Amino acid sequence: MKPAGKITKRMTFRWRSTAKEKHVAIAGDFTEWKPVAMRRRLDGTWMAVFTLAPGSYEYKFLVGGQWRTDPENNCLAANPYGSLNSVVVVE
Amino acid sequence: MTRLSERRASGWPEQETVVVTLAGNRADFFFFRPHARRVCLVGDFNAWRHDEAPMCRGGRWWTATLFLPDGKYRFRYIADGDAFTDYAAFGVEPGPNGFDGIILVDTVATTGSDDRSPECASCARRKPSVRTVDVASQPTATTHQQRCFDPLVLHRNALVHRARGRPALTHVP
Predict the structure, then answer these.
(1) By the 8 A CB rule, do A36 and A48 touch?
(2) B71 to chain A: closest CA residue
(3) Domain spans of chain B?
(4) Average pLDDT, whole number, for chain A?
(5) CB proximity B52 to A under 8 Å
(6) A49 vs chain B: nearest CA distance in angstroms?
(7) B51, B63, B66: best mutation site toward chain A, by most A Cβ within 10 Å?
(8) Residues A50-87 pLDDT 10s
(9) CA–CA separation, B85 vs B75, rounded Å?
């Protein structure tokens, strides 16, 4: 049996939108807040997959040059800039 | 105390359509609005911008979780463009468009130092508190048990979970 600290999970992040964005990126604790481009799928959703160790992570989407929280995630944390980051908890 | 089913039949009292529970720096917002199509939270914490803090539907309740640093925050719920004040939170204050609900986050007063219990699911999801307190100076009884077994919080949780069709929260410390 593996020790608990070594178990990681593949987490999928999705940005669903009806608007025609040209570029969507994700940035968070797990990317050291460097924007990572997401891939656009045929159905119009943007997707990125990360392998994460258990813990809680903050992230945000970069859509058309603007920082946006995840519209489908109701778990958020305040950041020092007076706005919110989305939070994902890996168990 | 009347039973939940009787209260539902007589129309829900106003104070139970909005519930905020606080555990450390984690605030859970519950908003009863079964027929709303879109609900979000606005407040100091997101500069009153709409659509930054969406709430998700869990049955007939809308829920959101915020991790906030210590401080006092004003907030409101926006359901389909209409603002609603939480009069049952930590008080209300007059704002430019009527009363705003208040939430007071004080990690030290509510939890002391980092005393999360691994058995308690709500504690496990909580992030470690930023400020720490000398553990030796804390009275031993006011730890996890008292906070998580606060009768009001437990009662609110039970109401919310029953309303969602789930069993009430029970855990053994």
Answers:
(1) yes
(2) A78
(3) 4-163
(4) 89
(5) yes
(6) 22
(7) B66
(8) 999 999 999 999 998 889 999 999 999 999 888 999 99
(9) 8
Residues A12-32, mean pLDDT to the nearest whole number: 89
What type of residue sits at position B132? T
- Series of mean pLDDT values for 10-residue runs along chain B (173 residues): 50 62 88 89 90 88 91 91 84 86 81 49 45 38 40 45 42 40
Helix (H, G, I), strand (E, B) or coil at B51: coil
Read off the amino acid at residue B54.
Answer: P
Model pTM above 0.90 = no
Show the tokens assigned to B44.
């100091």
Q: How confident is the model at residue A21 (pLDDT cuts 50, 70, 90)?
A: confident
**B65–A87 C-beta distance less than 8 A:** yes
User: Which positions ≥6 away from B5 have C-beta within 8 Å?
Assistant: none
End-to-end alpha carbon distance in chain A? 17
Specify the fold of A4-90. Immunoglobulin-like (2.60.40)
The pLDDT of residue B5 is 54
Closest C-alpha among B94, B119, B116, B99 to residue B107: B116
Tell me if chain B has a CB within 8 Å of the CB of A89: yes
Number of C-beta neighbours around residue B34 at 10 A = 9
Compute φ and ψ for B92, nearest 5 degrees: -130, 155
Q: Which CATH number fits domain B4-163: 2.60.40.10, 1.10.3470.10, 3.40.50.170, 3.40.50.300?
A: 2.60.40.10
DSSP state of A75: E
Chain A CA closest to residue B39: A74
Evaluate whether A36 touches A27 at the Cβ level (below 8 Å): yes
